[in-house]
Amino acid sequence: MEKYNVAVVGVGAVGQEMLRTLAQRNFPIRELKVLARTAREISLDGTSYQVRETVPEEFDGVDIALFAGTEGESGASKLYAWEAAKRGAVVIDNSSTFRMDDRVPLVVPECNPDDVTWHQGVVANPNCSTIQMVLPLKALYDRSRVTRVVVSSYQAVSGTGRDAIKELHEQASLIVNGKEDQVKPSVYPYRIGFNLFPHIGGFRADGYTSEEWKMIVETHKILGDSHIKITPTTVRVPVYNCHSEAVYVETEEKITAEEARDLLRAFPGIVVIDEPEPSESDPYCRTYPMPIDASGKDEVFVGRVREDPFVDNGLSMWVVADNLRKGAALNAIQIAELMISRGLLKRR
What we know:
There is one protein chain. The chain has 2 domains: 4-126 and 328-341, NAD(P)-binding Rossmann-like Domain (Rossmann fold); 130-323, Dihydrodipicolinate Reductase, domain 2 (2-Layer Sandwich). Strands 3-4-2-1-5-6-7 form a 7-stranded mixed β-sheet, sandwiched between helices. It has a 6-stranded mixed β-sheet with strand order 9-8-10-13-12-11. It has helices at 13-24, 76-86, 128-141, 162-176, 210-223, 257-266, 291-294, 325-341; strands at 4-9, 29-36, 40-44, 47-53, 64-67, 90-93, 122-124, 146-155, 229-236, 243-251, 270-272, 300-307, 314-321. Helix content is 28%, strand content 24%. By secondary structure, it is α/β, with parallel strands linked by helices. The chain is built from 8 helices and 13 strands. β1, α1 (13-24) and β2 form a beta-alpha-beta unit.
């Protein structure tokens, strides 16, 4: 098997999950570089990594550059992605910087694998909440075109990063110990401990947030259908890891709940947890997935599939996935694996 020179850019929550996932999947690495804003040494799962400062020259000789996804004008992908591509690397970028760029494929390997063939050096990883939604949408879409989606997401603090995880932990500890008056939000605009708020990303002029708009335009691009009517509401919840979504779908032709479950079970990357009647041995958890079921797992979990009693072609379902794995690190690495399998990534 050919091996590749790989760079992971960023060592936050997603960057660390990329390193973990590369190791767990025995990715064919010849040489691994870990790059970040500053040089230092980190330890992850008992392994030490020497982190080097990100500068253009570090991408010389790199075959695959996995950008973990810092946003904004100072983000690594904004500064270095095309430079890395110019130096011969294929960039797989987890930030939102290039997702809607016409030069850049936006890929979920189970849904639109052929799109990797037209990359020009950069491939984009979709938003975490989009990734877990499009898998079940694609499973249904392949049977009958999806015309309408109404989705409410319940997104864990790990999507914001390690500081947000720490903030939730500290706030929860203060509140349960009767020190609620000492809670002072810093990462989020409001208290997240034992609270939630429908505010992820910046607000647009139309009242939607940037996170909500990502779910609309990214789904259109991945499924290749800009006519799907999508109405999202994104909610930050006091959960450490794994996003959950209540997804309502309308299709051109009727799909029964039983048929939908069969379609979802047959689709790669999806696990259906949806017993119509709870069993005596497990009366609750096995009838639907929860964040504690999905954390650390690669699959997208779907349950509570049911027909709309008022709309002939309407279906509702509950979707849960680990936002750091399938929602970020795993999907990026699966893109690299897909490119290798199609001969699109050749080691120099």
